[in-house]
Structures are given as structure tokens and as C-alpha cells.
Amino acid sequence: MHDTDAILDATTAAIPPLLSAMDALAFMGRYADPATLPELITAVTDLQPPLVESMATFAEITWPEHLSGFVEAVTGAAQSTLQAVEIIASAQHQSQPMMAAYRAMGHHSKALESLYPLSYGLPPVSRFYLEPDARDDATLLAKLAAADAVRAEVGVMHADNPVDQRGGFSLYVPEYFAGESLPLIIALHGGSGHGRRFLWSWVRAARSRGAVVISATSDDRTWSLHNPEAESQRLAQLVAYAQEHWQTDPQRVVLTGMSDGGTFSYVCGLVDSPFTHLAPCSASFHPMLAETADPQRLQDLPIYLVHGANDWMFPIEVARTAKATLQAAGARVSYHEVNDLAHTYPLEHSARIIDWVNGELFTNESNTT
User: Which of 141, 159, 236, 326 is 20 to 30 A from 127 via CA?
Assistant: First the structure.
């Protein structure tokens, strides 16, 4: 006999501190820069003791066999979260604290992947994987609750994309997908990143707004900026793959990326390609990119450009140059200069990019946030 009350108590004790710690990691990843890192480290590490204590209680329970998947998901997410916190706690004592913070965020992505299957049955976890403005959307919550989440063609999927390999891709299709035409997001990670990890920068937004996301992994440690033909062709093939299997909208195909991935968005997207919209983030840019592009391609090309005012890798002047150059060439630039952003991915802009491609935001705008 299993003690149902003990199981319920252990679950109730474990999930809230786990979600709080994972949210704190996301907050740190979004706002980390060399100046704020010490304060963020303190905030994150303060959440370690409650999580350790709750997981000790969770481990004491004799769990029935049919809940083994549940236990594995919670335990895996907690272990990855605690690994991330341990790396962060030591960051100030390392020669490159920001690099340690970036490594920690890889464990955070692993935690998100581990816990995600519980979004199918636990309402608090389901709401956790939604944008804040969608967590009380009764219509969306009902759609998610009614969806057959174990269908082979929906949810989180991976194609030859374990984190120790290159050249594969991961993707997300909303569990409530029923054949409707959705926008397609092709998302590119930064230098030394991985598509399996970068996918989690987009799942909340795609699940909340309704979009198919493919997060590709570069063939090498980063995108081939000087010889882009092979990888550009592979990205075009991924667009065709998505359109064949999920009938994605060919008029709403976004190529986006962070850092080197954003730069490759320019390299691949400013020439003839299936991408109807570009959304580079924290990217490098040289005016020659516009000069070598087809002038007809640039005319009225929608570009959502977001860059941090505190970016220490590619200074904000790079983005301002990109905005001026691309607008002069005829592109419709939606420019977003983010005051509190360094060289990290601004998670809140994933949903805004989907809104933008759906026509809910104006182009040729210039926002400072």
C-alpha cells in the first residue's frame, strides 16, 4: 500500500520551490551582466536550501511504479537546477564569471526539458510553461487541458540533436495543434551554443501564442559566417520540412538568432531565402551585409532588431548602425534598444516577435525599454 497523503504532501512540497528556483535562474540569465552578477548570484543561491530540503522529503517517499516517470521528471529537473546554482555560486571566484553564468544556464535548459512532460497533467507546471500574460487565459488553458499531448507530431521533439553532437535540430509544436496554419520560427543559438538548449528560449512563447519553432544546431561550434552556403541550405530544408508536416504559413517564416545566431540571420536572411521576416538579437553587423544583399530583397523586408544597451560583446552602436543602414536600404525595421539588457537573450521578446510577425505590432518603430 502506498500512502496517498504522503505522496500528495511530497509533491505539494517539492513543486513550488522547484518552480521558484527555475524562475530565478531564468531571471538571472535574462539580467546578468558583469555589473549585476554578484547581486543576482546571491538571489539565486538563497533559493537553494528550500529546494534541497523539499527534495529530501520527496526522496523519502515510496513511490508507486506507475509514477516513476513523474519522479524522474521532478528529480531530474531538481538535480539540473541545483547543478546550475552550484556553478553560479562559484562564478565570482572564477576568472570569467560571465562564462560560468552561461554554463549554468545550460543546466537550466536541461531542467526545463526534464520537467516539461509534467505540463501535460499538472496545472501549476502547465502555467509555468506559459508567458505571464497567458497564465490566466481560460480559453488557452482549456485547449491545453483537452489536447492529446502524446501525439507523435506535437510537443517537444529532437532530430539527431543530443547535446554532444552537432548538426541536428530540436522543435516544438503546440500540443493543441489541429492543422491550422501557424507561423514558423527558425531559431539559431549563439557561439558554442546548442539548438536543444536554445529551444527553451521559445517554448513558452510558442505554446502561449501558437507557433512552430525549430531550433537548429550549427555544424561546428558556431555558425559558418564566412562560408554560409551549406548551413543556409539546411535551414531552407527545415522550412520545407515544417511546411510539409505542419502546413506552416509560408508568409510568416521568421529567421531569428542570438549573438552569432543573430549575425547568421543577417547573412542567410538578407539574400534570397524562404524567410519572410528576420529577427536578429544581440548580433554583430557590418554595412557590407546590406551592400552585398539583393536590393529588391531588402525593399520592405520586415526586420525586428533587438539589442541591449549594456551589451559588452557587441556594443549598442553596432545595432544603431544596423538600423540606419537597413532602413536606408528600404527594410521595415522594428528597432528595440533594451536598457537593462547585456549580452544575453531577452526572453520577453520571443512572444513579442510572434506578435510582430502576426501583424500585431507596428514596423518602422523605435522603442527603448
Answer: 159
